[in-house]
Specification:
single chain, about 400 residues, mainly alpha, DNA polymerase, domain 1, hpI Integrase, Chain A, 2 domains, globular
């Protein structure tokens, strides 16, 4: 099986056999009310992806799912995307739960023309997300007059409210977070390069944690996105789908920002005319932003070092840090804000969640209290209320 995909274009470059390009797809619309000029599946998908170029994170996620489907349907079923039926998508759902062969071959590279497209079976949540993205694609093509109908519209809805109520687990507790900060202070600072690594790591980790930014948001953040209103600092954020938001910034974080900038001989507060990034290259290059992948790798290395520095008597902490990634800092920020009693509505705004139910998964303090009181009563049945018995 040939998984060749040319990654040179920013939106999508994929070559399909002419016989499977979708120009004669059985689900093609009549063309009487066509809203787009595309006449092949690749052209149509490329146009859909172009709607998301302002949101790099969303674009990458949507492109990944589109490429997977285009290659699977043409190479496994031998039919174009524009001929897929509901039965075909049922097969694809089963495939997502258990990709085999070259699709998930660990011997294949993660990047390049012959890369594997899966690291293994997708979780139920990831499957649901993938099919939701693809349903959005098909709906777009139906609205554009390119396809006649959306087979995924027949898919039975999944009730995810029960799963949403489960508390998030991918976060660092307060002790582990303090350890991460302490381990950064142990980084070598013997050479200029060492010092550059130390200052950037110190700033990046604090920025991600205190603002709860997604990795793509941090990569795209500009120095001038920090601004003052009524004497208080805020960070302007462009998030998923180009949605704009603002995050409160503490004086402590602004002091950390001033320190990072001073190290690179920049004024403590960005000038209005600045165009540079909030997180610079290792040597302080203000002309380019770091990529999300670079930020991800920096954070993973910080966590790896922190895990190595933990005592062997804390195997759970070591395992947690070895699994942790950039998104764990976002989860940690929300969890710690909730632990501190921050109003759930404010946390929702800080994380820019559409639904407050999503934010509710970070409420750990009440669970901790329930656990403590429940186990205390079972371990000390004679003192269920925590009050001394009355004297006879």
């Amino acid at each position: 099986m040939n998984l060749a995909v040319t990654p040179s274009e920013p939106v999508l470059t994929i070559v399909l056999p002419i016989a499977l390009d979708g120009s004669l797809g059985t689900n093609r619309a009549s063309g009487l009310h066509k809203q787009i000029a595309a006449d092949t599946d690749v052209e149509a998908v490329r146009l859909w992806l172009a709607e998301y170029t302002a949101s790099p994170h969303t674009l990458r996620s949507y492109r990944k799912e589109a490429v997977r489907l285009l290659l699977w349907t043409t190479q496994t079923l031998g039919k174009p995307l524009s001929s897929l039926t509901r039965e075909d998508f049922l097969l694809y759902e089963r495939f997502l739960a258990s990709p085999t062969g070259d699709w998930a071959d660990p011997q294949r590279p993660r990047r390049g023309r012959t890369r594997r497209l899966f690291d293994g079976p997708l979780s139920e949540r990831s499957q649901h997300q993938a099919l939701g993205i693809l349903s959005g694609l098909i709906t777009y093509l139906v609205s554009a007059g390119y396809l006649a109908g959306n087979p995924l519209a027949l898919r039975r809805g999944r009730n995810t409210s029960t799963k949403r109520s489960r508390r998030v687990e991918r976060y660092l507790d307060h002790a582990l977070w303090d350890h991460v900060l302490a381990s950064i202070e142990q980084l070598p600072r013997l050479t200029e390069r060492d010092q550059q690594h130390y200052e950037r790591n110190r700033w990046l980790i604090r920025l991600l944690y205190q603002t709860a930014l997604r990795v793509s948001e941090a990569a795209n953040a500009k120095a001038t996105d920090f601004y003052q209103r009524r004497g208080k600092w805020w960070l302007h954020v462009i998030g998923k789908g180009g949605a704009e938001g603002e995050v409160p910034v503490s004086d402590t974080l602004m002091a950390d920002f001033a320190r990072y900038r001073a190290f690179h001989k920049l004024p403590p507060v960005p000038c209005a005319s600045e165009t540079g990034p909030a997180v610079m290259s290792i040597a302080g290059d203000t002309a380019r932003h770091l990529t999300p992948a670079t930020i991800y790798l920096i954070v993973r290395e910080v966590f790896r070092r922190a895990a190595d520095a933990l005592e062997t008597t804390n195997p759970a902490g070591i395992a947690t840090l070895r699994r942790a990634s950039t998104h764990w800092l976002r989860h940690s920020a929300a969890s710690h804000q909730a632990d501190a009693g921050t109003d759930l509505r404010f946390i929702q705004k800080n994380l820019r969640h559409a639904s407050i139910e999503t934010t509710g998964i970070y409420l750990h303090a009440e669970d901790d209290q329930r656990h403590t009181q429940t186990t205390r009563s079972s371990e000390h049945p004679d003192e269920p209320s925590g009050q001394p018995k009355a004297l006879a």
